[in-house]
Write a structure and sequence with these properties.
- Two copies of one chain form a homodimer.
- By secondary structure, chain A is α/β, with parallel strands linked by helices.
- Chain A folds into two domains: about 20-90 and about 280-510, Aminopeptidase (3-Layer(aba) Sandwich), CATH 3.40.630; about 95-160 and about 200-275, Glucose Oxidase, domain 1.
- Chain A has 16 helices and 18 strands.
- The radius of gyration of chain A is 25 Å and the shape is globular.
- Residues about 1-15 of chain A have low confidence and may be disordered.
- At the A-B interface, α3, β2 and α9 of A face α3, β2 and α9 of B.
C-alpha cells in the first residue's frame, strides 16, 4: 500500500502537463464507472429479466427471438450505437410447451425428466415398457437387435451415485489463484479431430437403428445426481431431426427404473412430450452494439458473452450472468459518457452451446477464413465446430487488424478475480496495469493458463488476442452448469456488480491504450505434438 | 492389541469350565453372525424391495399396507416367531396418483412440486394466478383479507438461496466422535409444550381462512434448494382434512414465481393434483417379530426402526435403511440359529413422521400409561405427540419390567459408529463391552449425549433404557432427509451390511447378558428448569 502511494506521488511529480491531464481524465472516468456500477447498477434487473421473464434461450427458439429483440432495445435505450444483429445459418427452432414422464408400473410415480433438445414430441401420452440397453457406439447395436420393438430404450449404463464430499460452493483463495499462473504447452493432433468427426454421426445412426428396430422412444440418464437434469441434444440442423422422442431422466429416477427392470418385470413409462419446432427462420443472430471511438484508425476492442443457453434451467449463470455483465458494462460506459479512442464493441453470441457457432460466424464474417474449398467450410451442426480448428491456412479478412483485444465472460456468475492471459506472456504486464485499480476488489490476478470451450477460442486460433476473465467458481461447475437449477436465485448481486464494473473499466483501458496489445504471429499449421502416439480409437 | 491378548490369555487361564464353554458359544455365535451378515447378506435386497418396489410408505397409505404385509411375510419366511401387527387409531390413508404444477404465464414451464400430504386433489387441472402472501401465524391473516379470492396463495416468504459451502457427504472422524461423548443436562418447560399445543390448530385456521377468502389453492416453498422437495402436511385425522389443495414447490421455482409476481403481472399456474384418500381402515399398525428367549422370566430386549416415510422420495434412508437393518439383524440371528436367554423382539414402527405415534402406542399398550383422565390422553394427531411428554404420573403396566433394553436406528443409512448412552453413565461400560468386538469396524464409541426426535424417546421418558445408534452422517441431513432424493441409490451396501451385523451382535449380547442393564428410577414430574424465564410467545 505504502509502496503504491509513493509510486503515485513520484508519477505526479514527474509527469508533464498532458500526461497529467490524461491521468485526471482517467481518474474521473474510473470514478464515474464505479459510481454507475456500484450505486446505479442495473445488472441484476437485466439478469432477472433475461432469466425469469424471457427464460432459457436455446438458439433459434421463440425465447431466443425475444431475447434478440429485447437486448437490442436495451442497448439502444442506454445510448449504444450501431446496435444490430448479424445472422448466420444455424438450424431449427425448438421449445418445450409441456412435458411429463411418469412411471405407471409397478407403482405410479412422477419422474424428473426433460425432453432432449430437438427431438420430436410424442403426440400425446406414449405408454410403453422400458428396456435397459446401454449403447454408446455403433458396435453396441448388435447386442440389442431384435429386442427393442415397442420399447422405451434406456441408453445409459446406470452406474452408481456420487459421494459429494467436497463443498459445492467455493471462492478462489490466493493459493488457488497462484496455481492458475502457469504456461501450459499447446498440443496439436489433427487425427483426434478426424476421429471426433467420424463419431459425430453416431446420434443419427443410433436414431436410425432404434427406429428400424421399432423402439418408440429413448431415455438417457442425467450425468449429475440430486434430481438435476441438464441440456443435451445436438441434431438441430434442418433434415437432422431424429425420428424418436428422447428424454433425459434424473439419475435417481433412471437408476430406480434400471433396478426395477433388473429384478422384476420392466416398468412401464408414460411420456408426454409436447415440444414445438419453428422453422420460420433458420438463421441465428449475434447481437452487436458499440460505443464509437474517437480515432477511426485505431480499430476496436470487444467484449462478449453468449446469450444462448440450454433449456433445463433458465440460463442464468450460463450465461445470462455474462450477458448481463456485458450489457451492464455497456450501460455503465454509456452512462459515464466516456469517449474512448478505440471503438468498444459488445457482442452477445448465440449457438455457443452447439459448438461456439456464433463467435465462429463472427470470425468468418469479420476477421479471417480458414481452409480452402472442400475441406469442411460451411459444414453443418457440430461438424463445423470440430472441423474449424483443423482447417488451414488462416486467411485474414480486411477487418483482421482492427480488433485489438477481445474479452470473454463465460465462467458463471462469480465475481471477477482477474484475467487468463491465455499463453501470451507479452500481454501480462499490460493486463496487470488494467486490473491494478481492482486489487482491493480481489480482481488483480493475471494467469498465463489457457482456457477453452467458449467464445474466445476461435479468435485466439486466428491470432486475435482473446482473453477470458477468471471468476470465483461459486457452485457453477458443481451443480449449476447446464442444470435445472441454473436459475436467477443462484446469482450473487455483489459479484455481478463487481464484475460489470471491472469489465467496463478494463474495456475502457484497452480502448484508450497508447499502443495496441502485442499481437502474436498469424497462426500456421503447427507440428503434430506426438507423431508417435497410438490411440485406442485407431481402427 | 497386545494388552487385549494378554487379558484374553489371563481369562482363559483363570476361567472355570462353565465360563469357558459360555465363551466358546459366544465366539461361535459371533462368527456365525459375521458369516451371515457379511457373506450371506440380504440387507440390500430387503432395502431395494422396500424403497423401489413398495416405494414411499406414508402411514396408512396403500403402499404402507403392502409394506405391513410384506415385512410380516419376510419375518415369517426367515423363521421369526410371534410375527404380528399391532394396531392403533391413526387417521386417513392418502396417496399421489398423478401430480403436475406448471407455470402458464409469462411462459410455459414445468415446475418441480409435490402435493402436500393429506390435502385434497384438484379434480382436474386448476388454473389461477398466484399471490405472494406470506403468513405464518393467525395475526398475519388481517393483511391479506379481501385479496385472495380466486388465487393460489404462496404462503412462504421466498428469501434467498443458500451457499452450500460445506461438503454434503461426510463420515465421522475420531474427533467428531469424541465430541459426542458429553453429558447434556435435561431441561423441562411445560409452558413451552402448552404454547406448541396452542399453535397446533394454526394449519386448520389457515385453511378455514383461505377457504373463506375464496382462495383456490395454496403453495409453500421447499426448505431446501437444489430443486429438492420434501414431505409436509399433518392434517391426517378423520375430519381434519383441509378444504384447499396444497402443493410444495421447489425453492428455485417458488422464488422465480415470487420475483415475477413482484415485477410484473402475477404468473398463472396450472395445478393438477390427483390424490386418493383411503378410509377403509383408520388404524395404523406396528409390525412385531421375535426370536424367543430360553428363560421366560428374563424379559426381552428390543430393536426398532420406523417403517413409515414421507412421500417425496422412496423413504430409503429415512427409514427404509433402518428398517432393513432391523429385518436383516432378525434374519441373521434366525439363520445363525441363536438361542438367546431373553427374547429378542423386532419392531417396525409407523406414524413416526407424524409424531412418533407408533412407538408411543407401543408404550401405551405394553409399558406404561401417562397422565390421568381428561389431560390429553387419546388426543388426535400431532396433539398426542406434544401432549404425551407432559402428562403425569407415569403408571407402569404389567409388562413394564420385561423390556430390559431398546435399540433404535433412525439416523440414515450410514454405518454404525457406536451407541448414544443417552445420559445414562451406568450403561456405558456395558454398552462398551457389547461393542468391543467391532472396534475394527469403527463402531466402538459409546457417547453420553442424548438424542431425540425418534422412536426411543417415549420409552426413555417412562424410564425404559432406550438407546440409539451413532451412524456416519453421509449426506443424510444435507440433502437426503425427507427429500425427493431419498432413494435407494444413495444407500451404501458396505455400511448397511456393517450395520445389520453389529446390530445383530449387540442384540444377542443384550439378550444373553447375565444382568439386565441398570434401570433408572421411574420418572416423576421434574422441576421446571428455568422458572424465571419469559418467552417471546408469552401473551
Amino acid at each position: 500500500m505504502r509502496h503504491l502511494l509513493l509510486a503515485a506521488t513520484a508519477l505526479f511529480a514527474l509527469a508533464p502537463a498532458a500526461a497529467q491531464d490524461k491521468k485526471t481524465d482517467k481518474s474521473a472516468a474510473l470514478n464515474s464507472i464505479l459510481d454507475q456500477g456500484m450505486n446505479h447498477s442495473e445488472v441484476m434487473v437485466t439478469a432477472q429479466y433475461m432469466a425469469d421473464v424471457i427464460g432459457p434461450r436455446l438458439t433459434n427458439s421463440p425465447a431466443m427471438r425475444l431475447a434478440e429483440g429485447w437486448t437490442q432495445s436495451q442497448f439502444s435505450r442506454w445510448g449504444l450505437r450501431n446496435v444490430h444483429k448479424e445472422g448466420f445459418e444455424f438450424g431449427r427452432g425448438w421449445s418445450i410447451e409441456r412435458s411429463s414422464v411418469r412411471m405407471l408400473t409397478p407403482r405410479p410415480i412422477q419422474l424428473t425428466a426433460i425432453p432432449i433438445a430437438w427431438t420430436p414430441g410424442t403426440s400425446g401420452p406414449l405408454t410403453a415398457p422400458v428396456i435397459v440397453a446401454p449403447m454408446k457406439e455403433e458396435k453396441d447395436f448388435a447386442k440389442w437387435r431384435g429386442k427393442l420393438s415397442g420399447k422405451i430404450v434406456m441408453l445409459t449404463l446406470p452406474g452408481t451415485g456420487d459421494e459429494p464430499d467436497e463443498a459445492p460452493f467455493r471462492r478462489l483463495s490466493g493459493d488457488d489463484l497462484s496455481k492458475l499462473d502457469r504456461f501450459q504447452q499447446p498440443t496439436y493432433d489433427p487425427a483426434a479431430t478426424d476421429r471426433r468427426l467420424k463419431r459425430l454421426d453416431y446420434a443419427q445412426k443410433l436414431d436410425a437403428f432404434l427406429k428400424s428396430e421399432g423402439a418408440v422412444a429413448y431415455a438417457t440418464m442425467s450425468y449429475r445426481d440430486g434430481k438435476l437434469v441438464s441440456g443435451e441434444g445436438y441434431l438441430f440442423g434442418k433434415g437432422e431431426t431424429p425420428a424418436l422422442p428422447g428424454v433425459q431422466i434424473a439419475a435417481e429416477d433412471y437408476r430406480r427404473l434400471a433396478r426395477l427392470a433388473k429384478v422384476g418385470p420392466a416398468p412401464t413409462l408414460e411420456i408426454n412430450s409436447d415440444v414445438r419446432f419453428d422453422d420460420s427462420d433458420t438463421q441465428a443472430y449475434n447481437i452487436i452494439a458499440e460505443i464509437p471511438g474517437t480515432d477511426p484508425k485505431a480499430g476496436y476492442v470487444m467484449a462478449g458473452a453468449h446469450l444462448d443457453s440450454w433449456v433445463a434451467g433458465d440460463g442464468a449463470a450460463d450465461n445470462g450472468a455474462g450477458s448481463a455483465m456485458i450489457m451492464e458494462a455497456a450501460r455503465i460506459l454509456a452512462a459515464a459518457g466516456v469517449r474512448p479512442r478505440r471503438t468498444i464493441r459488445f457482442a452477445l453470441w448465440v449457438g455457443e452451446e452447439q459448438g461456439i457457432l456464433g463467435s465462429m460466424a463472427y470470425v468468418e464474417q469479420h476477421l479471417a477464413t480458414r481452409g480452402g474449398a472442400g475441406d469442411g467450410a460451411g459444414g453443418k451442426g457440430m461438424q463445423r465446430y470440430y472441423g474449424f480448428s483443423n482447417r488451414w491456412p488462416v486467411t485474414p479478412l480486411p477487418g483482421y487488424k482492427d480488433l485489438t483485444a477481445y474479452f470473454n465472460i463465460d465462467n458463471g456468475s462469480g465475481k471477477l478475480r482477474g484475467l487468463y492471459a491465455e499463453r501470451n506472456p507479452a500481454a501480462v504486464p499490460i493486463l496487470r496495469e488494467w486490473l491494478a485499480p481492482f486489487a482491493a476488489m480481489g480482481a488483480n490476478t493475471v494467469a498465463l493458463r489457457p482456457t477453452g470451450g467458449t467464445d474466445h477460442v476461435f479468435l485466439q486460433q486466428i491470432g486475435i488476442q482473446g482473453f477470458q476473465f477468471i471468476q470465483d467458481p461459486l457452485d457453477y461447475e458443481s451443480r449449476i452448469h447446464h442444470s435445472s437449477i441454473d436459475t436467477f436465485d443462484h446469482l450473487k448481486a455483489e459479484d455481478m456488480r463487481q464484475g460489470s464494473t471491472i469489465l467496463a473499466s478494463v474495456l475502457l483501458s484497452a480502448a484508450n491504450a497508447d499502443q495496441a496489445l502485442p499481437r502474436p504471429p498469424l497462426p500456421t499449421q503447427p507440428a503434430v505434438t506426438d507423431p508417435f502416439a497410438y490411440s485406442d480409437d485407431d481402427d
